[in-house]
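so my prof wants the structure for this chain in the tokens format not the other one, which i didnt know existed until like an hour ago. anyway here's the sequence
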Amino acid sequence: MYGLVLGGVLVPGTAVALPLFFLFSSIGITNTYWAVLIPSLVSPFGLFLASIYAGAAVPDEMLEAGRLDGVGEIGLFHRLSLPQLVPAIVTILLFQFVAIWNNYMLPLVMLADETLYPITLGLDNWRAQTDRLPEFYQLTTGGALLSVIPLAILILVLQRFWRGGLTEGSIKG
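here's what i got, hopefully its the right format
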């Protein structure tokens, strides 16, 4: 199963947009936010990054010591592994948010209603109209600047988790 999901890294997003459209069309959820969000929730790269990081950050000795102390597998995950994995989880969350925020092709295929368009498609519509209406150039430039603000805020909020993860294990207890 891991190899199958990891094989998803090799498939470009544009190659699966049309089959996803046919699938979601048969279900009846095209032209909704769900048609764009559901495929974005699965991240083969995130799975790969999490597995590599977990192998390096969570020592087997620590898990074995927890098992010897009588901690169950769920407790091992929540009490020992999860705190070690916070930097990787935050990184994957940020990668996914940026990918969803900048997604262009999937919303273009899935959404017919322009009121549902994300900022990338809205800015592209404005940019396409700058030849006829030059005042849209300022709107497009301003919109591009404003579209970066949520990403910058997310990075500023999440940076403390990276900083904490970098110093984890630097102090012997």
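also thought this was worth mentioning. The CA atoms of residues 129 and 136 lie 7 Å apart.
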